[in-house]
Amino acid sequence: MLKSVTVKDSVLVPLVGSVLLMRETPEIARLRLLLVEPKARGLGIGARLVEETVRFAREARYRKVTLWTQSVLTAARRIYERAGFKLIHHETHDTFGKELIGETWELELR
Length: 110
What we know:
Elements: E1 5-8, E2 11-14, E3 17-23, E4 28-36, H1 45-59, E5 64-70, H2 74-82, E6 86-93, E7 100-108
Parallel strand pairs: 4-5
Antiparallel strand pairs: 1-2, 3-4, 5-7, 6-7
């Protein structure tokens, strides 16, 4: 089975995480995805990905980063809170076939 890899100093290194930031408006970026492979969780990779995403958003002159997550994703929520994001809204939904609590978080950059 072919695994995703990256090359660093001519050595193949398996990818263990991913983050996606997209432009929502000229002033607002949306963090759409944070994924860390199960074997790599607990090593600070998620926090580092979010840290680099926020750094990029600041350099790109966004005013705010927003995201939507689920209350059951406690590790991700902890990462967002430690990065300075604030919970601004929550609501119950059944988008994924069972009742969950969706949360909107924001981080003001300036």
